[in-house]
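Help!! Second protein's tokens look totally different from the first
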Amino acid sequence: MFAFTCRGVYFALLFYSAEGIVLSTVDDQLPIVEVDDGYPSSLMADFQWLLKVGCTWEDIQLLQKESSKASSSSSAHLRHKLMAAVDAMQSAVGLKDLGQLHYEPIRDTQNSVVIVTVSCVTECHSCPSVSLRWAKIGKLTKKQLANSEESSVGMKQVVAAIPQLIAFNQNRQCNLSRGLYLGYLKLEASVDLLQVVVPLDMPSVLPHVKLRDNPNVSKEEWLCLKSDEKQTDSKLSLACVEFVQLLYSKAKELTTKLGVSDDDIEKHHVYNAEVVELSPAVAFILLLPSSDKICTVLGQSSPMKQDTSFTMLPLPLFEMIQWQTYQSELIRLYCRASATLDIDQLLVQHCMREAFSEDEIKTARARQEHISFYLKESLHV
């Protein structure tokens, strides 16, 4: 427990307070549990699954019990180990809620991968384990910098990243005030990954500018936006003209802020299929670049990628953060159901491989079709 070697997958915990102290071991490192001593090829897929589990930490023992039935399966192997590590961490700190997983694992030069979960605590209670204590962040940093052991490279990187981990955890919980916003969609694609540009200080939403306090768009305003008529058209009502003028001026303000050239601004258009409602109080109208500029390829430069006030998030992680910020209870229920279905799918695949008689194969196949149906339905939620 709390051992860190040179290679493998690890699960680390960052509990911090507003006073600048963190939960640490007596050896002045973050609490950390080894998950696997290798680097499984399924790591990123299983990490995305763990993000769903992270919305419902209280179910970890139930999920672990179910997954143990197929622990010999290669596809369930790492997930079972991840849940065992989470269970061990919950027991060590005496809490079920371990906070929110950081959006990407931390990797070091020694082929180690550290999955970090982060949580702000209001009170620093006494530690349930004699191997844990509360310490100043500066003390951990100083101790790790002085550690010359080769095995400490990964922990050095984790400790060095504490300020960034805390900042992101705080920023992801920031939500917008009531109103209607104009958001800017910019994507980046690689072979197997689609990322979206978000503000570093509010990663739960797209780059944006506020249009007004009222989040609702009237039928007349929306029809006007969809009609592609000019704001000077005499057929438009005064309210409609003012809405279009507001949209044009804010679009100019937003694109200028994002470093879009004057030539490219004219090629932008409003997404008029729907108003995106994040919550009853917050809604977005989306501004899209031209079709050849909306999605750049990996390595292609753009003003937004060079701006340090923005960062790139994988699209599924962005969606997760946004739901956690604006629809926390709904995403918790969804993730509970989805994580359970994922485990059930692994179990039924295991049953299919073990099935021998015709009846066993028929039963397993019927169950697999049943689970596949619900998994497909969950993708449309």
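Here's the second one for comparison:
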Amino acid sequence: MEKLEVIGTSPLPRFGHTITSIAKTKAILFGGATGDTGKYAITGDTYCFDINTKIWKKLNTLGQSPSPRAAHAAVAVEANQMVIYGGATGGGSLATDDLFLLDVRNGEDNASWTLVPVIGTTPGRRYGHTITYCKPFLIVFGGNTGSEPVNDVWVLNVEKAPFSWAKVESKGDVPVQRVYHSASLCQTGNAQNMIVIFGGRSHLQEAMNDTWGLRRHRDGRWDWVRAPLKPEKEAPIGRYQHTSAFLGTLLLIVGGRTNNVGETVGLDIYDTETSEWYKYPTIQRFRHSCWLSDANIYIYGGLLHESPNVPTCLLYTS
């Protein structure tokens, strides 16, 4: 991993934020917690990072911005557009169940937040969940409702107005309740259009290492399938507060933490074509963010195992 030297208006060190790739060379940071031990401040900042120029820019957004939050979830829906949902606002409180859209199509200086009008029942308030986009559906899975981890799935069709959330009822085996897991969309190969989740912290406080795929069938059914594992290959270490991303057919699991303080957590890669796991050493981070551009992975912020109460603002790439 190589540390990137950046310029511009850099965000404060933080954790529990999101960074979302909205274009080939641009990524948007939102929210997270800054400060250190016992003095954290929850933020509602919006920043843009340009990969080509290495410039951070704080956006003075228009419209109705989301409230400050951390442990929320974000995903790009189209070029230069992204949504966020949920999160924690500090002091045990949770963000509303509103869906927010950031539109950067008219340039960073005219970036605008919109509260998306949604009718009916929502997934409700939660943190440590995931949101993914498999056109035309937004998919929310898991997280903690403030009282317990859950394993429910909710979908919203962005091409069907008025917008409404629908709870998915799937038959067969399903992942157990969890929080601080990861979810990424595979866009090629045998797992094409499958949302693949990994790990998380279970309702029993276990650091998990299971991998599941969620897919929609042509008849509208959604179902889960547990990812196969070659018996001769060692499974990755259980973890939570990690991130994941797909590079072609390869699922990259980046960072995270276990229930053993300071335990080393490497980069694990799952090949969806061969069902094999591979392990590589990497920087130690949890509650960070990561994104891919071309074949490069970018890792920003989060907490370090050697100083787990003090966030970093370093950006790494490989």
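Reply: Different proteins will give different token patterns, so don't panic. Residues 153 and 168 are 5 Å apart (CA to CA).
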